[in-house]
Write a structure and sequence with these properties.
alpha/beta; D-Maltodextrin-Binding Protein, domain 2; 2 domains; 11-stranded mixed β-sheet; two-stranded antiparallel sheet; 8 helices; elongated
Length: 243
């Protein structure tokens, strides 16, 4: 792979512009003094830039939907979000470098005991709009009804304020939320696992091939695992298996 051609395609301005989803609290865990995001996701982007030999410039966005919406608009060169079939219509994704379980929380007096009980008529599910797990639910929920809010905290508020039956979310976040409602329970298992990946605009063939190789190498070498340790998310964020 010719390095000059790769840089011309992946960082055409001479700087790698990396879109970072601030809404994922496992991948962005802090903010630097200069305002830059800190965490596994920004560090993965910085390593891509280092290997290209260019500076990194972060493009922080509040939700993954914002990143998906701006694909191909020359706002960012790589986007670090969950890989999903809907998003793959405009973004070429690597395989996942990390995974996060998605599951449900219910109130203590809920008759719902297992994940299979959720997709039933009359069940109302609160979810963060256009999150990777919302996109999965939109494709797979057939009988229950989805109620969407803008962001994770807003989905919790919706669940509480409207007394909905189920809150869908990332298991690590739900382990915090469950303590906010006396008697609440998190269901065993998962309905999906969010596949955190690196994407580039569809059609960037050199860039897509490079990012696929980069992700597989950083998983195999232990680089991703070390980032998970560095940012204190061991047990909440897992290194994804080889593609």
């Amino acid at each position: 792979m010719n390095q000059a051609d790769l840089v011309a395609e992946l960082a055409p301005t001479g700087v790698l512009r990396a879109a970072i989803n601030l809404g994922n609290f496992l991948l962005v865990t802090d903010k630097a003094a200069n305002g830059d995001p800190v965490g596994v996701s920004p560090d993965m982007a910085a390593e891509v830039a280092r290997r290209l030999g260019v500076p990194v410039q972060y493009a922080p966005m509040a939700t993954p939907g914002e990143i998906a919406d701006t694909a191909g608009k020359k706002i960012w060169d790589i986007g670090n979000i969950g890989a999903e079939p809907t998003r793959a219509e405009t973004i070429d994704f690597s395989a996942a470098y990390a995974e996060i379980q998605s599951t449900y929380m219910v109130r203590g007096d809920s008759p719902i005991q297992q994940i299979a009980d959720v997709d039933k008529p009359g069940i109302r599910i609160a979810v963060s709009a256009r999150s990777a797990y919302d996109l999965w639910l939109d494709r797979n929920i057939k009988q229950a009804e989805l109620f969407r809010a803008e962001g994770i905290e807003a989905s919790f508020a919706l669940f509480e304020d409207q007394k909905l039956d189920v809150l869908a979310g990332l298991r690590p976040r739900l382990t915090d939320d469950v303590q906010r409602i006396p008697g609440a329970r998190i269901l065993d298992g998962q309905f999906s696992a969010v596949q955190q990946a690196i994407g580039t605009t569809k059609g960037n063939s050199l860039a897509a091939a490079f990012l696929r190789e980069f992700v597989e190498e950083t998983k195999a070498s232990g680089f991703v695992g070390k980032l998970i340790e560095k940012h204190g998310v061991v047990g909440r964020l897992s290194v994804a298996p080889p593609a």
